[in-house]
């Protein structure tokens, strides 16, 4: 996360990992939601078998984190590698990062705007999805607006421009493993991406429209 005059720490998450039940319980308590049935985890091989065996599924649970039937889970395409699902986004991003950030800076700003793109995991267009419910909770607790941006619009999305700066500098580095690449990205983020550069991107947004 970045903003005018600040940037958060950089954290990597593995979308193949499950959200632990304790964190799910914390989120549901904040939203005053009843506990939902545990999601059955299957290997890719098992899901392929299920897809072949349940092509006539009629349940069609709508969202991955709400799958109650194996045939529903198998009938949907497996999410692309690297993309968080809605449960992961709510627990890891909204709860673990955005809320603490809002808590720490909301008293220092007259108006806060949370800018995000139209990724499906953000609960766009689904007012009863877990991310949407959590964002409503945040808006009731802290005074800020949510601005949904087009998925590919770097002129209006500050973080997209910051990622471009990181990618450009990463090309100049020789990395030989995933862990080394992560360490290099964190170094670039903490030591080379200056706050003045982020502020300049925000200041010039209107000029790039």
Based on the model shown, name its key terms.
single chain; 209 residues; two-stranded antiparallel sheet; two-stranded parallel sheet; 8 helices; 8% strand; globular
User: What's the SSE pattern?
Assistant: EEHHHHEHEHHH
Fraction in beta strands: 5-15%
Give the spatial strand order of the biggest sheet.
1-2
How is the main sheet built? Answer: 2 strands, antiparallel
- Fraction in helix: 40-55%
DSSP strand count: 4
Calculate the mean pLDDT score and round it: 76
The secondary-structure class comes to mainly alpha
**Over the alpha carbons, how many angstroms does the gyration radius reach?**
19 Å
Report how far apart the termini are.
22 Å
Organism: Baudoinia panamericana (strain UAMH 10762)
Protein name: Tc1-like transposase DDE domain-containing protein
InterPro entries: RNaseH_sf
GO molecular function: nucleic acid binding
